[in-house]
């Protein structure tokens, strides 16, 4: 592969590339620079142009010269990984206070969405769902999960836990996937996101 296509992206370049991908999938045509700026809440069209040019030079995007809305993903897009924030640790066990970090983690294309982040798993309450201590869960930010979704829940405005979500008649049940743990039953809970996938590192 051409070495220019293996260069790392900056955080802003990743955001722009992911915005372009999502826009193309939704509309089937490319966004304008102004739409990219608006979508990412940026004020400088010139800055967007510079980032797009850098993404072309790194092999992620291509476009026709002097033709509006001609930005396209390169054919090697499927080989890409994307850097997302690793926001801290979530407990698959008894809830604890979240531990924040400033790290990032690379994820494959099929896990990429506009609002995703990663958390490192501590504990074993979700092992029957294939989520083990030391794994990284990829989380999509949502506020209204469906019954059965594996979610990151914030309890008492400070403690987080990873469980399956079930809305019952008069309470919410956060169900572990390990018979050694009892369900957590609460009247109210803040959902920080649902699990899209799991990444496991063996090194």
UniProtKB/TrEMBL annotation:
Entry's Gene Ontology molecular function annotations: DNA binding; serine-type endopeptidase activity
GO biological processes: DNA repair; DNA replication; negative regulation of DNA-templated transcription; proteolysis; SOS response
Protein's name in the database: LexA repressor
Keyword Phosphoprotein in record: no
Alphabetical list of Pfam families matching this protein: LexA_DNA_bind, Peptidase_S24
Organism name: Candidatus Berkelbacteria bacterium CG03_land_8_20_14_0_80_40_36
Site positions for Cleavage: 92-93
Record feature DNA-binding region, as residue ranges: 33-53
């Amino acid at each position: 592969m051409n070495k220019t296509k293996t260069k790392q992206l900056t955080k802003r370049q990743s955001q722009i590339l992911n915005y372009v991908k999502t826009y193309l999938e939704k509309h089937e045509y490319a966004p304008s620079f102004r739409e990219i700026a608006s979508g990412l809440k940026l004020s400088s069209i010139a800055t967007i142009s510079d980032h797009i040019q850098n993404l072309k030079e790194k092999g992620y995007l291509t476009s026709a010269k002097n033709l509006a809305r001609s930005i396209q993903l390169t054919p090697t897009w499927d080989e890409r990984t994307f850097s997302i924030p690793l926001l801290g640790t979530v407990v698959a066990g008894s809830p604890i206070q979240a531990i924040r970090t400033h790290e990032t983690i690379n994820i494959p294309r099929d896990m990429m969405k506009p609002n995703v982040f990663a958390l490192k798993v501590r504990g074993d309450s979700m092992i029957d769902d294939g989520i083990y201590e030391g794994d990284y869960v990829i989380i999509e930010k949502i506020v209204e999960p469906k019954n059965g979704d594996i979610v990151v829940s914030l309890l008492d405005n400070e403690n987080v836990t990873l469980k399956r979500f079930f809305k019952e008649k008069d309470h919410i049940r956060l169900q572990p996937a390990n018979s050694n743990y009892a369900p957590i039953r609460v009247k109210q809970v803040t959902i920080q996101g649902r699990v899209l996938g799991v990444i496991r590192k063996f090194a």
